[in-house]
Amino acid sequence: MPKPNGVHALLRQTHEDRVLRVLRERGALARGEIARRLGLSRTTVSAITSDLLARGAIIVADTDAAERSGSGRPAERLALDPRAGQYLGVDFGHRRVRVVVADASHDIVASGRAGYDDGAQWPTRLDAALTLINDVAREHGLHFGALQAIGIGVPGPVSTAGLELAESWGRMSSGVTVGDVFQDRFSAPVIIDNNMRFAALAEAMNLPGGGGDVVYARLADGVGGGVVVAGRLVTGAVGLAGELGHVRAVDGGLGCRCGKSGCLETVASAPAVLATCTARGVAVADLDELALQIERRHPVVDEVLREAGAALGRVLAASAMVLNPAHIIIGGEIARVAPALVTAARDTLHFERLPGSATAPEVRVAELGDDDGAIGAIAALFHQSPLLAGYPEPVASAAAPTDDRRSS
After folding, report:
1. Does CATH number 3.30.420.40 belong to domain 87-197+373-406?
2. How confident is the model at residue 233 (pLDDT cuts 50, 70, 90)?
3. How far apart are CA 66 and CA 82, in angstroms?
4. Is 249 within 8 Å of 268 (Cβ atoms)?
5. Could you read off the pLDDT of 257-301 as tens digits, one per residue?
6. Ranges in the chain annotated CATH 1.10.10.10
7. What pTM value is reported for the model?
8. Which of 307, 308, 303 minimizes the C-alpha distance to 332?
9. Do the beta carbons of residue 52 and residue 16 sit within 8 Å?
10. Could you say which architecture CATH assigns to the domain 6-80?
11. Does CATH number 3.30.420.40 belong to domain 207-366?
12. In degrees to the nearest 10, what's the CA dihedral of 243, 376, 232, 104?
């Protein structure tokens, strides 16, 4: 049967989403019951459920034989397939890719991580991501025949220009984008945005009540961030909203990979903190060693962390003055292992706030860990799904990153 297009395709997708929703809410149902509950014809429901069965989104759970009275053939009762991955979230970082999979109930059912070199080109990153997805599916017994959508977080600004991949990427020619690769592999709609914005959305939705006004900063290999207003991601005119890492925080500071000097990333990123500690005589090669020195209360390490926190606090205070958020969330592993940094950021922000203001934003450490970017990518997909009609309309997302130099 040929696939519908245009208005018919949209209508069919809406009906399909309604069928999936009623099965999620009510459990196993016969086709006739689905039709009655949704006000659809039996013919329409039969066509939709046949397609969902063929794709593996739903299964025949049992029949209604035990509940039937009189003669007649028992009706099959259909249910969601617990093995069907419905939503896929992917977060490309500097040195790793994270993947999370959600089912039709919007529960995270699987996740995984794979690493690559900081300087890895996009073909290498994509190969790592696709291999990881296959491994996660195999480990958890999942399939993607019913995949509804894919959200992909990438480092750096995102624009409609697209990310060109090298000729070496399989049979693809130059000009293929990240979205093209995933769409070709999975035949599912794709949205792409900055991974830190997705992380901001995930942390905002994790707050009591979900959404609200949030400024998010993440201290990792770089420093990135995101802004959520009334539960909606803010992208900005050219995809730069939330690029806190490239706000100048120190006069006459070190050169940054973005081409400027004194950026927050040169002071408060994990590599910057480690390098500063080492330059001042306390050799710390990684965050585990930093945590050990923090536990020992080394005064030099404490001083470095407080300086980094103060720089972060100044940048966040400026953001708070402009945006007046209810919450400021600081993410990244260094925020979890270095409470002195977070305390210094909070104290500086409170000192810098508008005199006489009644309240200051709540400053807290992110709770979702390294999965937040991939979880946020899935949350953005939910914004676009008729299954969750109460979500705000999504901000239009673009196709791919233009420049990895500002990645966070």
Report:
1. yes
2. confident
3. 24
4. yes
5. 888 999 999 999 999 999 999 999 999 999 999 999 999 999 999
6. 6-80
7. 0.76
8. 308
9. yes
10. Orthogonal Bundle (1.10)
11. yes
12. 160
